[in-house]
Specification:
- With 482 residues, the protein is an alpha+beta fold.
- It contains 18 helices and 12 strands.
- The chain has helices at residues 20-45, 50-73, 77-86, 96-107, 118-129, 173-183, 188-194, 200-214, 217-230, 262-266, 270-291, 324-339, 342-351, 365-380, 412-422, 432-448, 454-463, 470-478; strands at 137-140, 146-147, 151-158, 163-169, 237-238, 251-255, 293-295, 303-305, 311-313, 319-321, 385-386, 451-452.
- Strand 2 (146-147) and strand 3 (151-158) form a beta hairpin.
- Helix 11 (270-291) runs antiparallel to helix 16 (432-448).
- The relative contact order is 0.11.
């Protein structure tokens, strides 16, 4: 989300192609055009040297993802959300530097969204609230406070004098998203080209369900209230109060919280950054491994550093309750990586659905262990580690970590072997938000240049280890009182 109010609304901001034909034409044109180009590339490659053919495929893959970014970014709604989800895919055949750049562009689809003019929102607000804004708010700032793919945020004051933020869904975006979700299957051939080992159809189904839920602000309000209750009185985490009585399917009203934005924290001293980063880490890992709740949007625009030292977390639209077996599978994978147990890791990957049984024989257990250590060592293995800005480059990737933080950079021969092995793996749909959470948290730690024994902190949540830091001790002391 944008951090500051926008004084000037860009002329094109309100142009949202809502018609089924218009949005289908965009996606269909993208798929058809890229299909022809891909077929042409393969035909030409029969006459090329292996090196030139590999280069041509890299160029075509890069062009495909670039066009996805450009076209999806113009459409808002589910089209942009699909792009954000695709940012988790490990693109086959690309040099790592190019892969990082493309994934960064996909992951950035939610940022720098121009707000819609207030006049276009007011009619929707009146309909949702049952009358003029003055019936609910004593003051309403018409300037957008923040903007994202499905809605934008305005500051307001309730008739009771409470300072609040009002998230309003873009007019027409729900209808546009319904069309996008129906069209999602058209993207499957492109996704399969980008990641041959991926079960794109199952992933598409999971995206449809999660994105559909994001459109329902009443459901988000329930999610928000649930997290607020779980963490009420927490020593270092704050969740704003949600005004469920004022919220509707397309309008969400919650407490306004004053705090420092992420960019300000990035400029702070090392002790402040480290403490803030540990709180971010503990919030998302604690909810997943203790409460079995996966929050799939750990974007740094969704948390604030409060004056009392707590970190306030916002936005609970992308949430999934996680089955106990899935959490156990994730713990088993992390434990095998920590213990350098290749056989146990391969078993855990099969059990967890990352390695289909009919492909398991094609994967060498020791190779899988090396791959997974490159991917998830940063949180699976104890040891002090300070992230660097380079760790914030690139997007998530890999079957088990989806983050790639803390890994040694492979050479060309190793990359070719990795691609072959990677095509044997898949991404279980119910692990989608888990992988997304791990990956974005790692990127955030890199942006903060944060240092800690992340493996020891994670072990508290993964394996029931004793507190590794004073924050861990404070949380343990709080839990029996909640």
């Amino acid at each position: 989300m944008s951090a500051e109010p926008d004084e000037d609304v860009q002329p094109e901001a309100g142009r949202l192609p809502t018609g089924r034909v218009a949005r289908t034409a965009r996606v269909g044109g993208l798929v058809a055009g890229q299909g022809l180009r891909w077929a042409g590339m393969r035909t030409a490659n029969r006459m090329r040297t292996p090196e030139r053919a590999a280069e041509a495929q890299n160029d075509r893959t890069a062009a495909l993802v670039n066009q996805l970014v450009e076209q999806l970014g113009q459409m808002r709604g589910a089209a942009m959300k699909v792009g954000q989800m695709i940012s988790m895919v490990e693109f086959d055949g690309l040099p790592e530097e190019q892969q990082d750049e493309l994934q960064r562009r996909l992951a950035a689809l939610r940022d720098d969204v121009p707000p819609v003019a207030f006049a276009d929102l007011e009619k929707l607000l009146r309909k949702e609230l049952g009358g003029p804004l003055s019936r609910v708010f004593s003051d309403f700032d018409e300037r957008a406070f923040a903007a994202a793919s499905i809605g934008q945020v305005h500051r307001a004051t309730t008739l009771d004098g409470d300072d609040v933020v009002v998230k309003v869904q873009y007019p027409g975006v729900a209808e546009a998203v319904e069309t996008d979700l129906r069209n999602a299957t058209l993207l499957l051939p492109l996704v399969k080209r980008l990641a041959p080992g991926l079960d794109a159809k199952a992933l598409s189904g999971e995206m449809r369900e999660r994105i559909g839920e994001e459109l329902d602000y009443e459901l988000e309000a329930q999610n928000h209230r649930r997290i607020e209750r779980l963490l009420r009185g927490h020593p270092f985490v704050r969740v704003p109060h949600v005004h469920t009585e004022l919220s509707t399917r397309r309008v969400l009203v919650s407490e306004y919280v004053e705090g420092e934005r992420f960019e300000a924290v990035r400029r702070a001293g090392e002790p402040v950054r480290d403490r803030y980063a540990e709180i971010v880490f503990r919030f998302f890992f604690g909810l997943l491994y203790r409460e079995r709740i996966a929050l799939g949007d750990p974007h740094p625009g969704n948390y604030l550093l409060c004056a009392d030292g707590r970190v306030c977390f916002l936005d609970f639209g992308l949430l999934r309750d996680v089955d106990a077996n899935r959490v156990d599978d994730e713990r088993a994978i992390a434990r095998a990586v920590r213990d350098k147990d290749a056989a146990a890791l391969k078993t855990a990957l099969r059990t967890g659905g990352y390695l289909p049984r009919d492909r398991a024989d094609a994967v060498d257990a020791d190779f899988a262990l090396r791959l997974m250590r490159m991917a998830i060592k940063w949180y699976a293995v104890p040891g002090e580690r300070r992230f660097t800005p380079d760790d914030a480059r690139g997007g998530p990737g890999g079957p088990g970590g989806a983050d790639g933080r803390g890994r040694e950079r492979p050479d060309a021969e190793q990359r070719a072997a990795i691609r072959t092995q990677m095509n044997q793996f898949t991404l279980p749909p119910d692990a989608l938000l888990i992988r997304r959470m791990h990956g974005i948290v790692a990127v955030v730690l890199g942006q903060l240049r944060a240092g800690a024994d992340w493996g020891a902190i994670a072990a508290e949540y993964l394996h029931g280890a004793p507190p590794a830091t004073p924050l861990g001790e404070a949380e343990v002391a709080w839990r029996p009182r909640r």
